[in-house]
Amino acid sequence: MKFDMEQASHSEVYKLLIGLIAPRPIALITSMDKEGRLNAAPFSAFNYFCTDPPIIGVGVANRPDQAFVPKDTARNIRRTGEFVVNIVTEDIAEKMNICAVDFPPEMNELDIAGFTTAPSVVVKTPRIAEAHAALECREHTTLEIGRSRIILGRVVAIYVEDRYVDPAGPYIKAEELHAVGRMNGLGNYVRTRDAFVKIPRLSYEEWKKRQA
Ligand SMILES: Cc1cc2nc3c(=O)[nH]c(=O)nc-3n(C[C@H](O)[C@H](O)[C@H](O)COP(=O)(O)O)c2cc1C
């Protein structure tokens, strides 16, 4: 099938893109409003974009019910200039999903999900204590695009539980961290437990040897 994106509805575009650009890592973002009230929500339009400087990006749409009002995460980040990306792993995936419920503002999704917090090292916004790794970020730029925005964050500190770090690299012991990825919506996720395949990078010399 072929789809003309100029003719497609927003819902069709969304379903096609999230179905094809998958699996996606999930950023469970903690942010604070000006009064210091904490907010948590998951975002899978998420990746790193450069390492020098260390920049990650997150796509945050407007609220589904109000076309011109950004989601709380985006509003908080604009106002405070900082946030924390908590890495979503298998053991906290169900709780992460609770944080995506559109609760009224007076309800705290972290409490409801059963998460607790721990202080960050550099930013004021705390990380989620149950997450095994977190990226502390300062807003670099927010690019407003249509009814959405891409938030670029500069990573200013990283927390990883000791047991998931091989100090030799330092490498992340990704085979043990069990990160999960979001797939095509419909509540579909992938586990990474026992799912690794090794495909080592080849030098030109190695590639030529293989052809011989
Ligand atoms: C796994 C997962 C990934 C999500 N990814 C995104 C995303 O990339 N962008 C977005 O705008 N909403 C995304 N959502 C929906 C938001 O999490 C949801 O709208 C949330 O209520 C926003 O909360 P906030 O208003 O407190 O920021 C996702 C939901 C789930 C469950």
Provide a brief overview of the structure.
This protein is an alpha+beta fold and 212 residues long. The chain has six helices and 14 strands.
Polypeptide structure, described:
- With 212 residues, the chain is α+β, with helices and mostly antiparallel strands.
- It has a single domain, classed as Roll (Pnp Oxidase, Chain A), CATH 2.30.110.10.
- Helices cover 21% and strands 35% of the residues.
- The chain is built from 6 helices and 14 strands.
- Strand 2 and strand 3 form a beta hairpin.
- The longest helix has 11 residues.
- The protein is globular and about 65 Å long.
- Flavin mononucleotide binds next to strand 3, strand 5 and helix 2.
CATH class category label: Mainly Beta
Q: Helix coverage percent of residues?
A: 10-25%
Order of helical and strand elements:
HEEEEEHEHHEEEEEEHEEH
Roughly what fraction of the amino acids lie in strands?
A: 25-35%
The quaternary organization reads as: single chain
Features:
212 residues, binds flavin mononucleotide, 14 strands, Pnp Oxidase, Chain A, seven-stranded antiparallel β-sheet, alpha+beta
